[in-house]
Amino acid sequence: MTALVTGGGTGIGRAISEALAGLGHPVAVVYSRSADDAQRTVEAITSAGGRAEAFRADVTDEASVRAAAAAVRESLGSVTVLVNNAGGTEHIPLADLDAATDEVFERLFRLNALSAWHVAKVCADDLRAADDGCVVNVGSASVASGRGSSVPYVVSKAALSGLTRALANALAPVRVNEVWPGLVITRWWAGKEEQGRALASNAIVGRETTVEDVAAAVVGLVTSRAITGQTITIDGGQTL
User: Which residues form the Ketoreductase domain (predicted)?
Assistant: First the structure.
């Protein structure tokens, strides 16, 4: 019943890790560079009575993912819930077409889409063997609007949406869904929090969307056994 959360040590990933631990899942907090943050997340979970361990992996490299998954199985057991939250961006004005180079496209595609493929592929046997194997991919509401931190970012997250639906078919009866957070103030907004909160104020519900809001949606998808191949937007109505 282990839950594996990539990018699980910070921001949205930490909130998801803690929420899944609250459901009783041992949590594998997978990180790439944020070792200290991942350990703090583990400590928060264990202090609350849960079970968690941190594992390092470069999710853009399948061999690294395989090694980490083997360590997770040995220490915590087979993976029954997978949350592909690892990702990133590069801030490039949408109108600056020359700055959106092939290299940026390739880097963000590997980080935001191919990484989820690697982890789902490596964990497929565990997920299929589970009573209710479940995958949740963390995408972006920018796919719907076409507006985001850069063109390559929007395109890479759109690829993740396609992967979600393809995997829902390829891994069935494993359930595969996706959440699309809108603007959520995380470390990516460091130094620009006021700007972010001004943009977030456009939400029609009259409040900022939080990491806990995203985690609650993930919990809903994990526990609702009839939902697969779907996308849930969590943005307070920003994209309506």
Answer: 1-192
Catalytic residue selected from 31, 55, 117, 153: 153
Instruction: Identify the pLDDT of residue 149.
Output: 87
Q: How does pLDDT run across 209-220, given as a tens digit for each residue?
A: 889 999 999 999
Residue type, 173: P
The reply to whether 31 belongs to the active site is: no
pLDDT digits (tens, 9 = 90+) for 103-137: 999 999 999 999 999 999 999 999 999 999 999 99
Q: Are 30 and 79 in contact (CB under 8 A)?
A: no
Quote the pTM value. 0.94
pLDDT confidence of residue 191: 60
Where do the domains of the chain lie, and which CATH numbers do they carry?
A: 2-234 (3.40.50.720)
Are 24 and 221 contacting, i.e. CB atoms less than 8 angstroms apart? no
